[in-house]
Amino acid sequence: MSSKPQSIGVIGAPFSKGQPRGGVEEGPTVLRKAGLLEKLKELECDVKDYGDLSFADNLDDSPFQMVKNPRCVGKANEKLADVVAEVKKTGRISLVLGGDHSYILKTLGIKYFSMTEVDKLGIGKVMEETFSYLLGRKKRPIHLSFDVDGLDPSFTPATGTPVQGGLTYREGLYITEEIYKTGLLSGLDIMEVNPSLGKTPEEVTRTVNTTVAITMACFGVAREGNHKPIDYLRPPK
Asked: Which uninterrupted H or E stretch holds 146?
């Protein structure tokens, strides 16, 4: 991976209409307060903050089949897509801070690994097979959408649908470290941080700290050596 400083465009997407739990719209705010952008700048990344998007409510927005607030979700996706396109035209990596995961369109035919397969193969083999599938014939840009719900709730308790037995902290870091090493990261979504669902302030802090660490690994922070634990909600003055 080249040591050339990376250019990043940060977009806040405080949207929560795609699922029933409020509070996830606070995700961009707590990640900003945790000093995420400052930490990226410390890596000598060229960071441009595009601010938080605003989303209009549609009072007449009845569900369509299993889709909650389909009109609001559709308009929000369009608005976000326009800003991401603007970021990409400048040659920057788009970093979207969510917000709920209704932005991420589910497409049939996507290769996936169950947690049973992760346990059996190991995260190293999973990433090896993933890259073979994505990049085996041709190098192409990678867009990573990281839902912190996918991590075990012992690491990210303040999130919408915590499931016991999810990815470990180390597995989450390994995934993002390996994607960074490809040099092909084009876009990153960090989704489903919901501070209102933390039962205690410590749970919120734990979730934010984990999320910041996962994000930083996408941009080159590695684990080699011993590092002093950092409380990103209380950055050093």
From this structure: strand 142-147
What tens-digit pLDDT sequence spans the chain (237 residues)?
A: 556 779 999 999 887 665 556 667 788 899 999 999 999 999 999 999 999 988 776 656 666 666 666 677 777 788 888 899 999 999 999 999 976 555 544 444 678 898 999 999 999 999 999 999 999 888 999 999 999 989 999 999 998 888 889 999 999 999 999 999 999 999 999 988 888 899 999 999 999 999 999 999 999 998 865 455 566 566 555
The pTM assigned to this predicted structure is 0.79
Type and span of the H or E element at 185: strand 185-191
The amino acid occupying position 27 is G
Please answer whether residues 81 and 96 qualify as being in contact, where contact means their C-beta atoms are separated by less than 8 angstroms.
no
Ramachandran assignment for 88, one of left (phi > 0), alpha (psi -120 to 50 degrees), beta (any other): alpha
Six-digit token pair at 185? 């990261």
173 with 217: CB under 8 angstroms?
yes
Sign of the torsion angle spanned by Cα atoms 75, 76, 77, 79: positive
DSSP track, 85-129: HHHHHTTPEEEEEES-GGGS---TT-----HHHHHHH-HHHHHHH
